[in-house]
Predict the 3D structure of the following.
Amino acid sequence: KGLAPLETATTTSNIRNMLEPHQLKTDTVETERILTVLDETIAKLEMGSLIPRIITSLDRFADTLGPEITSSLMEHEKLSNQMETLLSGLEEGDTVRAEEQRGCLNLLEQRLKCSVRNVLRLLLANPLLCQTLKYGVWERGAPAEVFLKAFGEFQTFMIERLLTSPSEEEEKVQFMEDISLRIKKNNEAITALQAELAAAIQTREEEIHKKDNLIKDLKTSMQVLTEDYKVSIQQMKQEGEKQQEAELQAAQVRCAALEQEIKELGAQFQALVLEHRASELALRKRKCRLEMEIVNWMQKYDADMGQKQAEYDEINAAYNKEKAQLSVLMEKHALLLQEYSQIVEERRRCQEEKERALREEIARNRAATCIQAFWKGHTARIFVKNLRQKMAKSKKGKKGKKGKQ
């Protein structure tokens, strides 16, 4: 029985160690990527759930957000209003009209998704701004809080699953089976102990009945003893009164000594009050001097800021003027670019015509050269043939003359 609490604590510690994931670090790149995706998703969900609150208090955060994020949020608000208007005016009777509205609804839904992604991209690019918005925006809606809580539980579950190896999972299942068997045995032992307890309770009630009888006997004896004690109590009261008088005299002496000590401490207190009043006066003078310096610095700051504001207005006016000039130049540049494209296209066509004519002329020259070469060869062959025929005739004529002779 003395070792039971220690064994219970050890068993509880073993159960906690077995059920918790042993692996503290990820061992694969895929696990790290999954955990990173879960963290990024929670960050996007937190910021996405704050977008409606930010839009409702856009005037408050306009300076913090900047023009680009403010314009994106205004565009998102416009798309949200269009979506609500379209959903509220959705007609069910006319089939053609309903199909058109569903098509518009799908298109508007895609645009709204793109707007949310754009706003989240701009917000998450500035972590300091995200922290400011989390602390500055009011609480989220109940559905968003429920969804974030559920996703956080899902992330915890996924982390436990990813950090638990298959062997640890098998050990955990085996351990749970052992625990179930142990619980079954404990329940059987508890049933047996309850039966023993009922028997012990019955025995205890019998003993209590016997003790009640004994108590009655003791009460009668106590009455007798009470009468004997009254005499001794009277004697003790007399001795106590004497002792009280002696202690009262000693207390009066101590009170006189304490009163003298109080007078001395009062004089010391007065001296300390005078000293502290002098130091307080010096501190008040220093405080007044510091307040005057602060006022002077504030006036100087207001003057400097007024000068800076004037410079900013002047630069902003020059910027707007140059921006207008830039728009005019951009329009002229667009016209000139169009004319230049037309000129380049005409030059390209002329160049292609010249190249085509040149290729045709080269082809004609090659054909003429081939024809001339063929003709020259043909005439040469005819000339050689005729020459050979003449030479053959002349040889035959000479042979005939020799035969006649």
In short: The radius of gyration is 56 Å. The mean pLDDT is 78. The helical segments are 4-19, 29-56, 58-65, 67-88, 95-124, 127-136, 142-163, 166-404.
